[in-house]
Amino acid sequence: MGRGKVELRRTENKTNRQVTFSKRRGGLVKKAQEISVLCDAEVALIIFSHNAKLFEFSSDSCEGRDCSLKV
């Protein structure tokens, strides 16, 4: 039996929104790190918060040299 469709809506409470953002950011960084280790891939992650604060992650192979963006 499948799950029902989840309605997406903005979280109005600023505190809850910030907590959710922090948890999701941590999850994304963890996944990026796992991909870089397990697949021996160059990974770079750039995240901007709602107030334009920058968060970044790059795998060890990207540090100290230019990791160009490949789409």
Automatic annotation (TrEMBL):
Its main location: nucleus. InterPro entries: MADS-box/MEF2_TF, MEF2-like_N, TF_MADSbox, TF_MADSbox_sf. One of its GO terms (biological process) is positive regulation of transcription by RNA polymerase II. One of its GO terms (molecular function) is protein dimerization activity. It holds the Pfam family SRF-TF. PROSITE patterns: MADS_BOX_2. Keywords: DNA-binding, Nucleus, Transcription, Transcription regulation. Residues 1-61 form the MADS-box domain. The keyword Disulfide bond does not apply. It is found in: Nucleus. One of its GO terms (cellular component) is nucleus. SMART domains: MADS. This is MADS-box domain-containing protein. The lineage of its organism: Eukaryota, Viridiplantae, Streptophyta, Embryophyta, Tracheophyta.
